[in-house]
Amino acid sequence: MSGRPAPPSLLALHAGTVLTFLYLPIVVIAALSFHDSTVFALPWQGFTTKWYQRAIANPALLDAFGNSLLLGLATGTAAMVLGTAMALAYRAPFWGKPLVLALVLLPVMTPPIVHGVALSMSWRLGGLPLSLYGSAFVGHLTFVMPFVFLTIFPRVHRFDRSLEEAAMDLGATRTMTFRRITFPLMRPGIIAGGVLAFTLSFDEFLRTLFLTSRELTLPLFLWSMVTNDPSPQSSAVATMITVFSIGCLVLWSRFASR
């Protein structure tokens, strides 16, 4: 068996096939959002932006967007604080560190529907009502925490700890050392983790479906629109969500690469 690498043309074909499979449906949805037809179907009947205008003027959609935005901001802020604390605590030597890391990463490996059902049943068994800023917030936070931890953790452990030791040798307190040395080095990772947490929370559907009662987030609103409205307005909403999420991920990548 030859150990020669695959030809560049074959690698390019493979990459092009994968990218087409992943992104062609999004391109089709975006194109049909400008379709001048009352139903979400072909053939093409003309170009229009009326579906975006109707979506933006829809008060229910604006309420759902506000719910997603506030929930995402709350989740991202809490995840930044807890993720930073977890990353700093993980620097200390203690027994069972691999087990703790496995428990932190467990929500990533748990199927979303299982995670959502388990949290919903636990919440109900505790006699607590399902709500957007109660059960859904907890569900989103436990889901995004591993991603935030994995974003911040390399920042905490990558820089030279002798800088902290040198600062304390020169008379700086632990608080001053953290504020002047540790935190500035961690800050890009913390911001990147918060942006990623916000994006994941903003787009989350399954866990939100099981953990809310009557409040609609933007993904839930889109799901109800797809099931009840055959017009291309749903594709316009989907396109706006996609563009917003891509913008958040671009922001995340800028901080993550620093």
Any overview of this molecule?
The protein is globular, with a radius of gyration of 23 Å. It has one domain: MetI-like (MetI-like fold). It has helices spanning 8-32, 50-56, 59-89, 97-109, 112-125, 135-158, 162-169, 174-203, 206-211, 218-228, 233-256. It contains 11 helices and no strands. Helix 2 packs across helix 11, helix 6 crosses helix 8 and helix 8 packs antiparallel against helix 11 (233-256). The mean pLDDT is 83. By secondary structure, the chain is mainly alpha-helical.
Characteristic terms for this protein:
MetI-like fold, 75% helix
Order of helices and strands: HHHHHHHHHHH
Q: How much helical structure, as a percent, in the residues?
A: over 70%
Strands, total number: 0
Supply the helix-strand structural class.
mainly alpha
Domain count: the total is 1
CATH C-level category: Mainly Alpha
* CATH topology description: MetI-like fold
Q: Architecture, according to CATH? A: Orthogonal Bundle
**How far is it from the N-terminal to the C-terminal residue, by CA?**
42 Å
Average pLDDT over all residues: 83
Shape: globular
